Amino acid sequence: MVAAGSVAGCTKTDTASGGSLLQQLQDSGTVTVGFAGEAPYSFEQDGKLTGATVALHREIFENLGIDNVEGVSTDFGALIPGLQARRFDVVSAGMSILPQRCEQAAFSEPEFNYTTALMVPKGNPANLTDMQSVQQSGVRMAAMTGAIESDYAQQLGIDAMQVASPQDGMDAVANGRADVFALTGISLNWLAQNNPQVPVEVTNSFVAVIDGVPQVGAGGTVFRKEDTELRDAYNAELAKITSDKEKYLSIVGPFGFTEEELPDPNLTTAKLCGETG
To answer: Could you tell me if 35 and 91 lie in one domain?
Structure first.
């Protein structure tokens, strides 16, 4: 069973009450995940939590003896604060693994490689192709609060409008409040394909370049730093999936993910977090 909801408050499990979080989740049979409604990673559909990250979680947590996945909806930028405040046990959002985030929380090994794309009005009137073209054109850009594309904009000196969700970003482009909305290619293509009536299109995906450095990235599940036993158990099950292309695609393929999103085994969380030695 996978349920979605938006009720704030503490989870049923709390490591402060004694015992490891993994054991508490196994005892209760339920894990509560925070999600931000970014399709096709994790989102609500017909009152149920679904998406590629959720599908991975169903498989992995069931293998760990935790049969139920429940969701708490929150804005993307509030996911790590919500995790730290114990509103949920883990974050299910395909969140980019970045050094500054690694200072606040612990990440699984990569679950998805990702690239960026741009959502623009039909016809792409400004002929945008990448972040530099956005910077040079001076168009009005929208980015999701807390998302990596918002960081790209800041690093390039782009004054981006902040939106709370992918839907808000698409709406901003559709109604003319923004000229471009930057997000992962997977998310933008899903949005466009599932909203064919909206007069927008998505550019080809690209690897963003900041200060001459390609921003090759990956996303994973987020844990509190103290929940190392749960993270390590999760990683052991995740490795069984990401090392088996057919198994991986059988889980995430229905949500538009392809072999291109299969994590590069050489791109580890330690490297993405900037750890050395």
So the answer is: yes
